[in-house]
Fold:
Amino acid sequence: QVQLVESGGGLVQPGGSLRLSCTASGTMFSIYSVGWYRQAPGKQRELVARMSNGGITNYADSVKGRFTISRDNAKKTTYLQMNSLKPEDTAVYYCNLSGNYWGQGTQVTVSS
Structure:
């Protein structure tokens, strides 16, 4: 059974930083792409960042230069480092593996 467990969300002030983690179990990891998506209230889920199994990354324009996706294949974990956070980054963040598997989501709230 494939599981993706996320952690690291929370409440942060504008300009602050958070690092999200997502650890997989029950599946191979290194051969798959990983991604982070987010969904704000009343909006569709959108891609934030993605990394291929070869390390190629792409980012939503709204987070370029502020967010960084990374992966540790030995730990079957992907990370999303989020800097210079803005109120509009507030959303539930989900990790994705291979386009098929989803984490449970972790809330990120950016507010003063």
